[in-house]
Backbone:
């Protein structure tokens, strides 16, 4: 069963477009931070923000290029995708890090 995620939030920064090598091929990826807000009703039955969380989001290939071209800091976005944690090995310490 895949780890799926769906949420609405605002970009903390404009997307940054990078080209990285994956298995010998150059691939384009847009990286961004999104703050997903949470709302509830207060005692006066008004909707108010009562928290949220930030998450790194990556978009690959054409979708990433389009996001970097059109989206800017503060833009409201809807994210649908899967949650995946990547580990890499630090060259200096040899430790695996998220």
Residues:
């Amino acid at each position: 069963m895949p780890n799926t995620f769906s949420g609405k939030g605002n970009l903390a920064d404009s997307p940054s477009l990078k080209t990285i090598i994956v298995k010998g091929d150059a691939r384009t990826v847009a990286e961004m931070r999104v703050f997903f807000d949470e709302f509830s009703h207060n005692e006066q039955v008004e909707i108010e923000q009562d928290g949220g969380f930030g998450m790194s989001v990556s978009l690959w290939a054409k979708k990433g290029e389009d996001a970097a071209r059109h989206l800017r800091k503060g833009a409201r976005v809807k994210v649908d995708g899967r949650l995946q944690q990547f580990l890499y090995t630090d060259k200096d310490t040899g430790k695996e890090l998220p």
The helical segments are 61-70. The chain is about 10% helix and 60% strand.
